[in-house]
Design a protein that fits this description.
Layout: H1 19-28, E1 34-36, E2 48-60, E3 66-69, H2 80-88, E4 93-96, H3 123-133, E5 136-141, H4 148-161, E6 168-171, H5 195-212, E7 217-221, H6 241-249, E8 255-260, H7 266-271, H8 276-290, E9 299-305, H9 314-329, E10 334-337, E11 348-350, E12 353-355, H10 383-394, E13 400-406, E14 411-417, E15 423-429, E16 436-443, E17 453-457, E18 465-468, E19 474-477, E20 481-487, E21 504-506, E22 513-516, E23 527-536, E24 539-546, E25 550-553, E26 561-570, E27 582-585, E28 594-603, E29 607-616, E30 622-623, E31 626-630, E32 636-642, E33 645-649, E34 652-656, E35 663-664, E36 669-678, E37 688-690, E38 693-694, E39 696-697
Parallel strand pairs: 1-33, 2-16, 3-4, 3-10, 4-5, 5-6, 6-7, 7-8, 8-9, 9-10, 28-39
Antiparallel strand pairs: 2-13, 11-12, 13-14, 14-15, 15-20, 16-19, 17-18, 17-20, 21-22, 22-25, 23-24, 23-26, 26-27, 28-29, 29-36, 30-35, 31-34, 31-37, 32-36, 33-34, 37-38
Helix pairs in contact: 2-3, 4-5, 5-6, 9-10
Organism: Micromonospora wenchangensis
GO biological process, one term: polysaccharide catabolic process
GO molecular function: hydrolase activity, hydrolyzing O-glycosyl compounds; polysaccharide binding
Length: about 700
């Protein structure tokens, strides 16, 4: 969040935060390009179909999952009342000393030159609060106005002198906001403000801090794919921020730290949780490409989230539950709301409720400057606090998140499988005006006939309501609500086999991949075999089985992303939970009559110039050609193009030759270019087809 020089009433988002809105306008400026797609459907009268597949395992909920931010300008940071409220909501990680303040904060004398420091907010007070909550600390070392030596001294004080065992340390906060890309809100006293310099100093910080305590984890700041300044290269950096930082500091860091403020109206913020899967995919791809050997060890934390509208009313609550669930499904080890207390901002009415423009979970009890409107009493929980409490009821440490989906964008679903055999399903109705009936279908789990335990948070409610009602198969979700169902299995849990270890993929070609895993530990009857499944949406498609611990999957489609799980089956016929997933993308055909190379000429954060080179690998010339490819997402688009006729229908792009370049000689090539726009993560296409033939990808 922004650096402020007085007790903040609200954090104002910087100019680049408007990138998503600019992208939305770009998508409309197609410059005459033929772009067609389905018309928006009217709200269906039929029930929303929800599908939960308990055999399609995702990530396991970590003990650091539910997090929040604490700030040194918050006088309530160390109070028992605040700590007890956070503990009751299930908070297990707390970040300090608070956003951009971290880059002006000096821990030794507890000062933040240019900013306000409230009394009783020093590091020891914070640690006492963290212990009262039962949360692990995440500490931000001062990059902007500090030094590696200062950070190392802080580690020494925390873990050697005081014995706090503080494990998680991030170097700086939003350091791409230091003016390097043209917009400046983050303090940075270094003459060189490049991404390269930040990365070089992260190495120095990590070396100095780990020399004091080798057991700590050090993180570097990255930016959210699809959000400013993602994709932009500035100065002499070899590439955009994420690529540059990872290429230099990747071997030295243990995790990367990302913030996300989707902005826009309440409806736009709630819809943009659909970006999370692709953003997580791009982050992991960037780690694999640029962070050096064993990059899979690097974790991902999301330490600031909030919405642009309805920060302390139901939009904030719905977004919190949906985003936390999505991020945890993608293996993020902590998600942290901005903020515990923040103060009154612009007062509006949101869905019939007074929204104070307060980014805090808890009321600060403050009033507008003219005193005409005041918040509820200090520490009154706002709607996002209740959503965090709902997350604590839904996803507990050790639960395995499993695949869930719906056929209606305004209703989203998440699910977890529990060690005691229960299944919990979280349903989010983002429709502010209409209740939504749902039907729920289960795979890999048979619910009992008993009424499920229910938890509900409705618009304007003062807390989560607990009950036991209805059936496992259908329900009506109130407008603008969160509902969690906890279901018992139809039969008692018996000795099912254990799942195998985390699968890995190797030898990935255009048509095959070898999946390997460590064997399941002995449990109950002997293991008969392992079964390999593809997650095809919420459907598990069996690809094969083996008595061993590796399996080569054949007949795959070139240029396609696959997510696979492995299950154990014992000689009694019982099946385990699924393993964690492994995701990989097949290559283009190794031997093809054509090769396509897609390159980026320039990128400005919500649009880009791309070039497509088509190479004829055959012995004969190509006389007339049409190239097709499909964008991985619905928020990517070709706005205009040249050296070909460009059209887009839905997500599929067709590039047709002109009279000038219709002939490609044997061994020759031709190039066409386009301007693309994106309003979310810009995921490159992975498959290209020329005149019906899949091409190699260069």
């Amino acid at each position: 969040m922004n650096r402020v020089s007085a007790p903040p009433s609200r954090p104002s988002r910087r100019g680049p935060g408007r990138a998503t809105a600019l992208a939305a306008s770009l998508l409309l400026a197609t410059g005459g390009l033929a772009v067609t797609g389905p018309s928006p459907a009217d709200a269906a009268a039929d029930p929303v179909a929800v599908t939960v597949n308990a055999n399609a395992g995702l990530a396991t909920v970590p003990d650091t999952a539910l997090g929040v931010n604490h700030a040194i300008w918050d006088s309530q940071l160390g109070t028992a009342e605040t700590s007890d409220l956070l503990k009751a909501a299930g908070v297990r990680m707390m970040r300090y000393p608070g956003g951009s303040y971290a880059d002006i904060y000096h821990w030794r004398d507890h000062t933040a030159p240019g900013g306000y420091v409230a009394p009783n907010t020093d590091f020891d007070t914070f640690m006492a609060a963290a212990r009262r909550v039962g949360a692990q600390p995440m500490i931000i070392a001062n990059y902007g106005t500090g030094t590696p030596a200062e950070a190392a001294d802080w580690v020494r004080y925390a873990n050697v002198t005081k014995g706090y065992g503080a494990k998680w340390w991030t170097v700086g906060n939003e350091n791409y906001g230091n003016g390097h890309y043209g917009s400046a809100w983050e303090a940075d006293d270094h003459p060189d403000k490049s991404a390269s310099q930040y990365a070089r100093l992260v190495v120095d910080y990590a070396d100095a801090m780990k020399a004091v305590d080798p057991t700590i984890k050090v993180g570097a700041v990255l930016t959210m794919p699809g959000n400013w300044p993602d994709g932009i290269t500035a100065g002499s950096d070899p590439g955009p921020w994420n690529r540059t930082v990872l290429s230099i500091a990747g071997p030295k860091v243990d995790f990367v730290d990302v913030h996300w403020y989707p902005g826009g109206t309440a409806a736009e913020s709630l819809a943009r949780t659909a970006h999370i899967d692709e953003a997580a995919h791009l982050l992991r791809d960037q780690l694999a490409r640029y962070a050096g050997p064993n990059a899979a060890r690097i974790g991902i934390s999301f330490t600031e989230l909030n919405v642009g509208t309805g920060q302390n009313t139901q939009p904030g609550a719905l977004f919190l539950a949906d985003a936390y669930s999505d991020l945890l499904e993608n293996g993020v080890f902590t998600v942290q709301w901005w903020n515990v207390h923040n103060g009154i901002g612009t007062v509006t009415d949101v869905a019939g409720q007074t929204d104070y423009g307060d980014f805090g979970l808890l009321s600060s009890g403050t009033c507008t400057a003219d005193g005409t409107v005041c918040e509820p009493p200090l520490n009154t929980p706002f709607a996002p606090y209740h959503a965090l409490s709902m997350m604590n009821l839904f996803a507990r440490p050790g639960d395995q998140l499993v695949r869930a989906a719906t056929d209606e964008p305004l209703v989203t679903a998440h699910a977890v499988r529990r060690a005691d055999g229960d299944l919990a399903v979280l349903l989010v109705n983002k429709d502010p005006a209409n209740a939504r009936p749902v039907t729920i279908d289960y795979a890999g789990f048979t619910p009992s006939g008993a009424a499920p335990t229910t938890y509900s948070l409705t618009n304007g409610a003062s807390g989560v309501v607990t009950g036991q009602s209805g059936s496992a198969g259908s329900r009506t979700l109130p407008a603008y609500s969160l509902t969690t169902l906890v279901l018992r299995p139809s039969s008692p849990v018996t000795a099912h086999p254990a799942p195998p270890g985390q699968p890995t993929a190797s030898g990935v070609t255009d048509r095959s991949a070898t999946i390997s895993w460590s064997p399941a530990p002995p449990k109950g009857a002997p293991i008969a075999k392992y079964e390999v499944y593809r997650q095809n949406g919420t459907v598990s498609e069996q690809l094969g089985e083996t008595a061993g611990t590796s399996f080569t999957v054949d007949n795959l489609v070139p240029g396609t992303r696959y997510t696979l799980n492995v299950l154990t089956r014992d000689t009694a016929g019982k099946v385990s939970w699924s393993s964690s997933p492994v995701t990989f993308t097949t290559a283009g055909p190794a031997d093809s009559g054509c090769t396509v190379r897609l390159t980026t000429a320039s990128d400005w954060g919500n649009g880009w110039v791309g070039n497509v080179e088509i190479v004829n690998n055959g012995a004969n010339p190509v006389d007339g050609w049409t190239l097709t490819f499909t964008w991985p997402t619905g928020w990517q688009q070709v706005s205009s193009g040249w050296s070909a006729t460009w059209t887009q229908t839905g997500r599929t792009v067709t590039v047709a030759a002109t009279d000038d370049n219709r002939r490609i000689a044997a061994g020759g090539s031709t190039t066409a270019g386009f301007v693309g726009a994106y309003s979310g993560p810009n995921v490159p296409p992975t498959g290209f087809v020329l005149n019906g033939t899949p091409c190699s990808v260069g």
